[in-house]
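Bug #2210: token dump truncated for Biotin transporter?
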Amino acid sequence: MEKDLARIALFAALIAILGLIPAITLGFGVPITAQSLGVMLAGAVLGARQGGLAVLLFVFAAVLGLPLLAGGRGGLGVFASPTVGFVVGFPVAAFVTGLVVEKLHRLPPGVSAGIGAFIGGIIVMYAFGTIGMAIVLNKSLTEAALLNSAFVIGDLLKAGLCGMLVAAIARLRPQMLPWYRAPVSQVFR
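Reproduced locally. Full output below:
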């Protein structure tokens, strides 16, 4: 239990640290950040339950006012910004990413993590982000989805990087992936 709590806190901290990488804010108020990579990794490494809890902890701390979101943002004002859908969708995206890697555990870990990051970290996160942007910016869902298309290439790269990092973890420290069933030859080396 203590190990699980430590891993959840560690990934919440990782997402906060990724927010320190300078963000590029687009004209419609949504920044390009590395934090979505942290969300993908939380789900892909920890699995659905722990990954979702790690990201929920991060979001909870940010909503309480800690300046953890990209650009040093935090507090209830986040709910009035164009990023609200992404912030609300972060825990769901991590949960879905973890759920996919758990269901695809028979595939190579990098492949299952890449697929999970694509489904949870892009499709699910964009669904939430698009709805939030449409509401806050008073745009149609189609207009908000078009605005979100600015993020697609970067997020595809992040999903690929997530897959590569998880593949490396599976090779070097398979016990760090609770959902992964490493081949017997790899466990006893």
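Output looks complete on our side. The mean pLDDT is 91. Marking as cannot-reproduce; reopen if the truncation happens again.
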